Amino acid sequence: MPHIRLTLASTVAAIALAGCSHGMRHDHEAMHGAMHGPMAPNAAATTPAKVTESTPALASGYKKVESPAAARLYFVNLANGATVSGPVKVVFGLSGMGVAPAGIEKAGTGHHHLLVDVSEWDANAPLPANENFRHFGAGQTEVSLDLKPGPHTLQLVLGDQNHIPHHPVVASERITITVK
Predict the structure, then answer these.
(1) Full DSSP string of 37-88
(2) pLDDT on residue 43
(3) What's the mean per-residue pLDDT of the chain?
């Protein structure tokens, strides 16, 4: 039998892909703090994005996909106030749900969207696809970004098979990073 070597990154990725469906409770802040330390010293909290209140159904009658109350979306390798060099590697963390590609309807799953420098968005509409709203519809759980030097805000939002945020919305905190 071959020897398998697991790294912390591969273990976190496996948990994210599995959706933590085994029923164990995870304390994200403790796990994040143990891996990356606390928020950058003297980093002011990033102002949350302005988001419309999520409704269970859209005006068109489309019933939004429900998310479990325990679902959490977070950045595995970045913290608010971090200063990083480009290209910026962003690793997406998800617990309480699993990842499925866009177009695949499967209970308890969704796919990632990364909002770059977005200050407001609609929780009751498909997320647009552009440089500020980046889609990961193939089920990707990380990306390398070429961002201009300076401050940038990042936020993760989970979307259903049609790129519509779940109800209730599953989103990370909005963080600010500075690219050198």
Answers:
(1) -SSPTTPPPPPPPEEPPP-SB-TTSPBPPB--TT-EEEESS--TT-EEPSSE
(2) 82
(3) 84
Q: Where are the alpha helices (DSSP H) in the chain?
A: 8-18, 28-36
Paired strand residues for 71: none
This prediction has a pTM of: 0.79
Q: Give the span between the Cα atoms of 114 and 75, in whole angstroms.
A: 10
Nearest to 124 by CA among 173, 80, 64, 179: 64
12 φ/ψ angles, rounded to the nearest 5 degrees: -60, -45
For the beta sheet containing 88-95, the strands, ordered from the edge strand earlier in sequence to the opposite edge, are 72-75, 88-95, 142-145
